[in-house]
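Researcher: I'd like a candidate sequence for this fold, 191 residues long. If you have to choose between options at a position, lean toward the conservative one.
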């Protein structure tokens, strides 16, 4: 055995018996992996849907880490799998024996695996917009039709502070004006 000096418990979970047999054959015949709970769960699904997310959570309860092998996956679905508890994601068409073994070894040592294009998409994805309490208060009052001076008086800010807050919101979120900021915040559920 190379970097692992012990037998790693690995449980293969797949609804398709042929897929399960193929994954088991690739892993259990090597001598470094044993069919047991408590280590790495290799979960094979067709796509990352609600059932797959629930399966990840269930597998995570019985195993240290979960490696997801899936047919269909994009960045949002990969993120959903990671949020549910998967430590790595492999596309089924990329899961040859060498890639699978490498991913299971990584999972066993606490490291994740992700196809490079998904990883790139996850890092390039814009963060969900947020507003702090002060920004929400100001935008709520703008939405209610209050002028800058009224907002400043009601919130005990200077008029300049209110203007700066609105400017910061529109600039950070790349919005055109106050009305656009209010509409955007309402649509996003931020106020």
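Model: Candidate sequence:
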């Amino acid at each position: 055995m190379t970097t692992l000096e012990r037998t790693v418990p690995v449980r293969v979970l797949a609804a398709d018996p042929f897929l399960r047999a193929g994954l088991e054959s690739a892993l259990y015949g090597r001598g470094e992996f044993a069919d047991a709970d408590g280590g790495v769960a290799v979960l094979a699904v067709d796509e990352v849907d609600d059932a797959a997310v629930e399966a990840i959570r269930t597998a995570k309860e019985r195993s240290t880490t979960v490696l997801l092998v899936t047919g269909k996956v994009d960045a949002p679905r990969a993120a959903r799998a990671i949020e549910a508890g998967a430590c790595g994601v492999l596309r089924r068409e990329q899961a040859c024996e060498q890639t699978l073994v490498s991913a299971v070894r990584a999972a066993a040592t606490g490291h994740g695996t992700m196809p490079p294009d998904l990883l790139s998409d996850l890092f390039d994805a814009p963060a969900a917009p947020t507003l702090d309490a002060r920004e929400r208060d100001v935008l709520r009052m703008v939405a209610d039709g209050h002028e800058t001076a009224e907002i400043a008086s009601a919130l005990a800010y200077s008029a300049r502070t209110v203007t700066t807050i609105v400017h910061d919101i529109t600039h950070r979120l790349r919005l055109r004006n106050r009305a656009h900021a209010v509409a955007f915040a309402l649509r996003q559920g931020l106020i």
